[in-house]
Every structure is written in C-alpha cells, then in structure tokens.
Design goal:
This protein is an alpha/beta fold. It has one domain: Rossmann fold. The protein has a 7-stranded parallel beta sheet with strand order 1-10-9-6-2-3-5. A 3-stranded antiparallel beta sheet has the order 4-8-7, with helices on one face. Helix 1 crosses helix 2. It is globular and about 55 Å long. The chain starts with a strand and ends with a helix. 40% of the residues are buried.
C-alpha cells in the first residue's frame, strides 16, 4: 500500500488524475471503476479539463460504478446516475453503452448482480478503481460487518451512513434510501489498482484504522491492506491520526527522486 500525503484536496485530485491519464495513454480501452461523493469531484474535474484542453480521449474507455441507491428513479437529483452525468459523463466522450451503473431498483436484483459481475469479467476486469471511504471505514456501500469476500449485492445502509448522506436529501434522514446496490469487497479486491482518496479530519480515524489497524470486517477498507496495488491519497487532515506520517512522506519523496533520474 502506497500512502501519498498532500497539503490540499486539489493536489490529491491532480495526482490521481495523472495516474489515470498515464494509464489511459498506455491502454486506450482502459476499464475504470468509479465512485461518487464529494471527494472524487475534483478528480473528475481534472480529467474533464485534460479531455477538453489536452485532448485526452475516453472514446474506448469502459466504466463501472461502485454503487447506487435502491428504489429512487435514475433521474432523481441525488441518484448516482445523475451525479455521474453532472460531474463526468456529460463532459467527456465515453459512449453511453460503455457506462455501467448499478440499477436503482431491487427488482430481479440477484440476476442483475450476477450479470454486473459477468460484465466486469467480460472486459478483462477493472484496471483502476476509484474509492472513497466513509467515516466508519466503509468502501462502496460495504458497511461494517461486510464479508471481505463479498460480491455485488443489495445491502441495508447503517444509521451512520443514513445520517451522513442526509445532507444530500435536505437534511431529512427519513428521505434517504435505506438500501443500496454495491460492488462487494471481493469484487474490489480483484481490480488491478485501487485509488483511495480521502480529505478532512472527519476521515482521519477511518484512514488510520484502514492503513495501520488490523484487517477486520468492522473496518471494511482495511481489506485494502491485502491488495497488491493500492494507492491512498490523503490530505494532512485525513493523515492526522497516522503513526507513520513521516515515513510515508519520505517514501513518496524518494519515489519522485527515482522517477526524475
């Protein structure tokens, strides 16, 4: 696990976008796993700028989103279909047929979940998966207690997740969908590279436990310790509870020295 600590969210977004850009230039039919939430918005803005100003071509890219709420219309202002269109898909040249987002209905969900997994396998797996992290350590909507081998499925959201997401629904917890469909931790662990982005002191405890704590279902993101190629990009505030901050900074500085030689 590589830990990159930067002063600001903007700098994290730039580094993450450069990792994706470099991968796309090497593989035109890159398969991206995408996340929603406030943290990756800066990353999407950077990629959109690269597309519009530098001509970065997404025409052969395929995407798979981590999750979606259950039982809200896809045109709902807080659906992840709407989020992705607003912040990314409407601004780059990814064909609609290559954009995959979990369905937002529980109808035939077992069949859909199996087909979602099959679709990922058909394109050779996900090359880079963008991840955020919840204050309780969830990734995707894999809540505490999720099996580390779990696959795409319907889940019930915890009370803390409902409260955290209520801000997007006018502050009323009762209007937040109680269920979601999500890629499983086992699905995430099969991707070739993970990019986990986190900012702010509210994420510092989860980041510390995910990176330096024990691997446990009570901290779903801790499973990434077992992933062979995970890059964690965090700001100083999110890094504030880490014990080995200076080591992580020195390691990244040495990596940059090697790359510049």
């Amino acid at each position: 696990m590589e830990v990159i600590i930067q002063p600001s969210h903007h700098q994290l977004a730039v580094i993450a976008s450069e990792i994706i850009r470099d991968a796309l230039l090497k593989k035109l039919n890159l398969v991206l796993g995408l996340a929603t939430g406030s943290t990756p918005i800066g990353l999407y803005k950077a990629l959109v700028r690269m597309h519009k100003e530098d001509g970065l071509d997404f025409s052969r890219v395929t995407t798979f989103n981590l999750d979606e709420y259950v039982n809200i219309p896809r045109e709902h202002p807080q659906s992840y279909h709407t989020f992705m269109a607003k912040h990314f898909f409407d601004h780059v040249n990814i064909s609609v047929e290559n954009q995959h987002i979990p369905q937002n209905t529980a109808e035939n969900h077992e069949t859909f979940c199996a087909r979602y997994e099959e679709a990922i396998e058909r394109v050779g797996g996900i090359d880079i998966q963008v991840l955020g992290i919840g204050t309780d350590g969830h990734i995707g909507f894999n809540e505490v207690g999720s099996s580390l081998a779990s696959r795409t499925r319907i889940v019930t959201l915890t009370e803390s997740t409902l409260v955290a997401n209520a801000i997007h629904f006018g502050g009323d917890v009762s209007t937040v969908p109680e269920m979601a469909i999500t890629m499983g931790i086992g699905t995430i662990m099969k991707v070739k590279q993970c990019l986990l982005l986190a900012c702010g002191t509210s994420k510092s405890e989860a980041i510390a436990k995910a990176i330096e704590g024990p691997i446990t279902v009570m901290m779903p993101a801790s499973a990434l310790q077992m992933h062979p190629n995970t890059v964690v990009l965090i700001d100083e505030a999110a890094a504030s509870n880490l014990k080995e901050v200076e080591y992580y900074k020195r390691s990244y500085a040495n990596k940059l020295k090697l790359e510049s030689q």
